[in-house]
DNA sequence: GACCTGATTGTTAGG
DNA sequence: CCTAACAATCAGGTC
């Protein structure tokens, strides 16, 4: 009983149009509700776009924490096989974490965003020069971003005196 | 064999 | 200002 077309890019029912928004503002809890009704969460459901270098959104602090959490969770629950379990456990744990604990994760997320901005710049550039799409391949290793040297300074300045 | 779904929160960009 | 959607993961489920 497949709810929608198996291969189709998640075709939602007309209900979505009937009830696009029903909850109040602020609480994204409704989103969960929507996922059940419309289920438009993340997945691969793009109509096919031509993106030279898809600038995927940087993982939020929660995701950064989750990445590590997943490993730990698996170690403690090798039998478990539900992604949702990690999500739930991670979500609760995340809220349980102190701001100081999330600080390092947020810092990482912030860095991710910086990189994302850079990628977006390139992405925007490509989009602008649609004429060069032909040369894009041969030229890509040349122009691109000029400052691509090894400038990796992992500065970990954490002054956790928040508490 | 291939593609989608679930669940968590945060961030991001557009209207 | 607010809304909608998407970011990872991974195995199960369906065609």
SSE layout:
Elements: H1 15-18, H2 29-37, H3 61-76, H4 83-96, H5 99-128, H6 136-139
This protein binds a DNA duplex (15 and 15 nucleotides) through helix 2, helix 3, helix 4 and helix 5.
Descriptive overview:
The structure is a single chain. This protein has 163 residues and is mainly α. The chain has helices at residues 15-18, 29-37, 61-76, 83-96, 99-128, 136-139. α3 packs across α4 (83-96) and α3 packs across α5. The chain binds a DNA duplex (15 and 15 nucleotides) through residues 1-10, 20-21, 25-26, 28, 31-32, 34-35, 39-45, 56-63, 66-67, 70, 81-92, 94-95, 109, 113, 116. Residues 1-59, 87-163 are annotated as: Disordered. This is HMG box domain-containing protein. InterPro entries: HMG_box_dom, HMG_box_dom_sf, HMGB_plant. It holds the Pfam family HMG_box.
Q: Tell me the structural class.
A: mainly alpha
- Kindly provide the radius of gyration, computed on alpha-carbon positions and rounded to a whole number of angstroms: 21 Å
* CATH-level-2 architecture of the domain at 61-126: Orthogonal Bundle
For the biggest sheet, the summary is: none
């Amino acid at each position: 009983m497949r709810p929608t077309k198996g291969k189709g890019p998640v075709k939602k029912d007309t209900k979505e149009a009937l009830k696009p928004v029903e909850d109040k503002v602020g609480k994204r809890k409704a989103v969960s509700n929507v996922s059940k009704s419309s289920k438009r969460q993340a997945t691969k459901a793009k109509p096919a776009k031509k993106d030279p270098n898809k600038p995927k959104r940087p993982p939020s602090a929660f995701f950064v924490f989750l990445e590590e959490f997943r490993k730990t969770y698996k170690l403690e629950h090798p039998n478990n096989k539900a992604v949702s379990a990690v999500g739930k456990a991670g979500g609760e744990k995340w809220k349980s974490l102190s701001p100081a604990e999330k600080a390092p994760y947020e810092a990482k997320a912030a860095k991710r965003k910086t990189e994302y901005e850079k990628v977006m710049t390139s992405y925007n550039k490509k989009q602008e020069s649609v004429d060069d799409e032909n040369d894009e391949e041969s030229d890509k290793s040349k122009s691109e971003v000029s400052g691509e040297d090894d400038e990796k300074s992992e500065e970990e300045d954490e002054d956790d005196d928040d508490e």
